[in-house]
Amino acid sequence: MDLYIYYRVRSENTAALHARIKSMQECLALEYAIVTGLKRRPEEKDGEQTWMEIYHAIPAGFETALESATICQELHALINGQRNTEYFLDVSSCA
What's the number of domains the chain is made of? Predict the structure, then answer.
């Protein structure tokens, strides 16, 4: 299962947030042997960008470790609003 988390960030917070997320994702990728990603929408609206963290093939219990990491990195201080979480599964070729 893949995990996608999207949220808004004020433009003036992007450099600080990027550094924290990069560090967090590098640690999580090593510890859980997963592939991570970080994307953003191309447009900016009202001084905000929409960002998305991606975590591929997450193991059971990963969400707890991720929540601890976000608290440790103090991501909520740089994010405008809440982090929205969505899960997706691969569609089998037999579906």
Answer: 1
